[in-house]
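fold-stage: in
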Amino acid sequence: MDVYETLYQFCLEYEVLLDDKKVPLWKLKKEDLDSVDLDLPWNSIRDLAIYLYELKKKQQNSKELVKCDIVEILVGIALLKAEEDYMRHVHEDTCLRYLSELITARINCIAKYYYMMKKPHNTDIFDEIILKFPQKKDLRASNINDLRLLIDRIRGYFE
């Protein structure tokens, strides 16, 4: 199974609040999206873009892997609303660019402070899937398109 397929499955298992009950995304219908509480720490995709920018900066300056939830971030990019509809695409592109740069910063952190053949102890699903240990290639050029396809696929699940 492709790593992005695995990540897609994790995204569909993300639990949201529907009528005060936690249910995975895969149980929702398109009409449920308007009344569902995504249970995300951000109110809009613009807030998520700001969060990703700050997280990227923090990771670039850290010797440790900064904890974050890739599934939560991807669900947010796919399903959070924009404050102005015409800005949705701009904020989405910004989020994907910052997420890609965050992944690159994590790769640099691992390359700088850990042996590439040995998996660091504090990795999570973010590192397992995106970095594909042991990491031997630069993902900067290719991961943004893969992430965009993943976002479109999550959104497409509800059409």
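fold-stage: in (second)
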Amino acid sequence: MSKLVACKACKKEIAKGVKKCPSCGKDQRNWLMRHKILSTIGFIFLISFVSILGSGGEETATVTNSDTEGAQTQTAAAPEKQETVYKIGDVLTIDQLEVTVSVFEELDTIGDPDFFGKKASDGGTFAAIQYTLKNVSDEPVGMFSYPTVSLLDEKGTEYSADIDASSSYAVETEIDNSKILSDLNPDISVTDTAVYEVSKEKFAQGEWFIQVGNEKIKLK
């Protein structure tokens, strides 16, 4: 036989475990049982609050270096990416093209100065290069998509090509078959030339490079 207990409201005896009193209808369950959802939310909040209090005493570790003026936080610097420097003859893939600087010459004169040739200015010298462009994509490439080609000293100073000297060098070498108005079709290669006039004394010192797009090729 079920154990009898008194109703919380009318005090009449009712069976233990019933939800409501048969006489007065009073709900016999406690607050937690009547509000299970709120009870669950409250329990979760309580657990979270206790966890936060428990971790409040922890400190984030930092690497410090003490000196005569006090402790200084040391920040580990990310290693710098080492720049790749190519050499003459290396094949560079730049966007849709393969670029190869095949020849470098230092010249005082180009061709016959009296007949469409070019002589270096006083104290100057010519740095002349020949390079090949090959379209390795599946569609034509226009000249405006070609990478820029310039001379670079070790300080990063950029030198533009001498147009007159470059034209004379192209005639003298007879290897220039570059396209000016036409697109370069897939799998087709052309050879171009460029000549840069610089100080002869300065060119004899330090390192010099050809920069193709963002890539560097060491000349000397």
